[in-house]
């Protein structure tokens, strides 16, 4: 039933050939591990974002079909797919190249150039690609995680983006600037982190009104990496103007701007008062992440006067909007009585909500409530053990807590026998 459900989903995604591969070879009865229908849908739907494999499958290329089957099976088996063979890599790149409109007669030479780039025998983009096509091809490759191995994906995309940027393509300039913001393992030194060069590229793209480029350029202004020769006051003023434009675009979350002032990840002086102001604007607009961040500022007295009451208000607002971290924090407020009257029942409720929403540390708090019997209730070691067990694989000290509770349960059982 599960295989048939997955097959139906693959067919809906126009991966009919991959569907046949899935049934015939990807999932063998001897090794098949049953999953729910929801799990099948979530795994298979992720394959639709892989234009290289998808294009190759639609074209009926055997290597692409084999690659789809291999990665699909690995996902169903909760395993990491092995690196693709050279034939699969060539087929995947063939699908990518065809997807950006390269003439059929030129596809083989373009793919061969990309294979040479991946193997360190060539650099740059193939002659048959325009700057726009190089940027599109690079974007397909860099975002298609799982089809190609990481080093091949980054090395090929870097060369394409650099060539597109040199050709004046705005998309290529933006992506190449993003790549310049970090070191990239597996590239063998092809691209080193270079904030100054990235700032120039972001500035050029930002002039055309691209909010994402404006956001990064503003961050580099805060860091002093953009326009380093002008005074600090002027740089900060220009950064503030750019962030205002980002906010007006509606495409950059206000909380993200606040984070830039709070953390200055690329360097510069932190401005927690500005960060809190941006979080407050986001909270007023109903953004749950802004509520969460602003709650932390109030709780710790960073950029604002410390107020547990306001921290509680913003944490609960974010929790009610579905933020699992805020659910946990709200539980802590009720558990400690900071900012609100102490209420163990309410604490348990919010910890339970957070835990059920995937915030694993809340299982520890729940386990503590059940193990100690705090709030006038009877201790329930079985429930405590159940909670600690759910956190044992993720939270390091959960195993110790679980073992302690299990030992106590064994002692109690021994005593009852006597």
How is this fold's topology laid out?
Layout: H1 2-12, H2 16-26, H3 37-45, H4 51-58, H5 62-76, H6 86-99, H7 107-118, H8 131-143, H9 150-166, H10 170-179, H11 195-206, H12 211-223, H13 232-249, H14 254-263, H15 272-284, H16 288-300, H17 308-320, H18 324-336, H19 344-356, H20 361-372, H21 381-391, H22 398-417
Helix pairs in contact: 1-2, 1-3, 2-5, 4-5, 4-6, 5-6, 6-7, 7-9, 8-9, 8-10, 9-10, 10-11, 11-12, 12-13, 14-15, 15-16, 16-17, 17-18, 18-19, 19-20, 20-21, 21-22
**Could you tell me how far the N terminus lies from the C terminus, measured between alpha carbons in angstroms?**
52 Å
Query: How much helicity do the residues have?
Result: 55-70%
Q: Strand portion, in percent?
A: under 5%
Structural class: mainly alpha
Written as H for each helix and E for each strand, in order along the chain, the element string is HHHHHHHHHHHHHHHHHHHHHH
Largest sheet: none
Gyration radius (Cα, Å) is: 27 Å
Principal-axes geometry comes out as: flat
Unreliable spans:
12-18, 20-51, 75-81
Summed over residues and divided by their number, the pLDDT gives a mean of 83
SS elements, strand count: 0
Count of helix runs: 22
Q: What characteristics describe this protein?
A:
mainly alpha, about 425 residues
What features would you describe in this structure?
With 418 residues, the protein is mostly helical. Helix content is 67%, strand content 0%. The chain is flat. The two termini are 52 Å apart. Mean pLDDT is 83; it is low at 12-18, 20-51 and 75-81.
């Amino acid at each position: 039933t599960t295989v048939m459900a997955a097959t139906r989903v693959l067919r809906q995604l126009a991966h009919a050939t991959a569907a046949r591969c899935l049934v015939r070879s990807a999932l063998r009865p001897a090794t098949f591990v049953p999953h729910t229908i929801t799990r099948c849908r979530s795994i298979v739907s992720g394959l639709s974002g892989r234009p290289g494999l998808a294009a190759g499958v639609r074209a009926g290329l055997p290597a692409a079909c084999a690659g789809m089957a291999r990665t699909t099976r690995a996902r169903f088996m909760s395993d990491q797919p092995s690196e693709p063979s050279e034939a699969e890599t060539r087929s995947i790149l063939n699908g990518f190249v065809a997807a950006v409109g390269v003439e059929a007669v030129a596809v083989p030479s373009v793919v061969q150039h990309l294979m040479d780039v991946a193997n360190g025998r060539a650099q740059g983009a193939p002659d048959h690609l325009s700057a726009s096509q190089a940027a599109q091809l690079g974007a397909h490759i860099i975002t298609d995680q799982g089809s190609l191995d990481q080093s091949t994906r980054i090395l090929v995309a870097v060369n394409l983006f650099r060539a597109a940027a040199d050709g004046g393509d705005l998309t290529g300039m933006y992506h190449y600037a993003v790549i310049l913001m970090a070191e990239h393992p597996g590239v063998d030194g092809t691209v080193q982190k270079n904030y100054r060069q990235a700032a120039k590229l972001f500035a050029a793209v930002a002039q055309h009104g691209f909010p994402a480029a404006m956001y990064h350029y503003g961050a580099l202004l805060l860091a002093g990496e953009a326009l380093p020769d002008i005074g600090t006051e002027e740089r900060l003023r220009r950064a503030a103007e750019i962030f205002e434009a980002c906010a007006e675009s509606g495409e950059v979350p206000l909380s993200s701007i606040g984070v830039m002032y709070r953390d200055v990840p690329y360097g510069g002086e932190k401005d927690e008062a500005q960060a809190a102001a941006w979080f407050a604007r986001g909270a007023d607009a109903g953004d749950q992440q802004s509520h969460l961040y602003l709650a932390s500022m109030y709780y710790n007295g960073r950029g604002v006067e410390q107020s547990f009451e306001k921290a509680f208000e913003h944490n609960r607002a974010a929790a009610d909007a579905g933020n699992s971290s805020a659910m946990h924090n709200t539980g802590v407020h009720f558990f400690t009585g900071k900012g609100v009257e102490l209420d163990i029942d309410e604490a348990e409720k919010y910890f339970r909500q957070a835990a059920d929403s995937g915030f694993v540390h809340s299982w520890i708090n729940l386990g503590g409530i059940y193990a100690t019997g705090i709030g006038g209730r009877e201790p329930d070691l079985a429930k405590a053990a159940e909670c600690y067990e759910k956190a044992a694989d993720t939270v390091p000290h959960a195993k110790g807590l679980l073992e302690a509770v299990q030992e106590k349960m064994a002692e109690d059982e021994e005593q009852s026998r006597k």
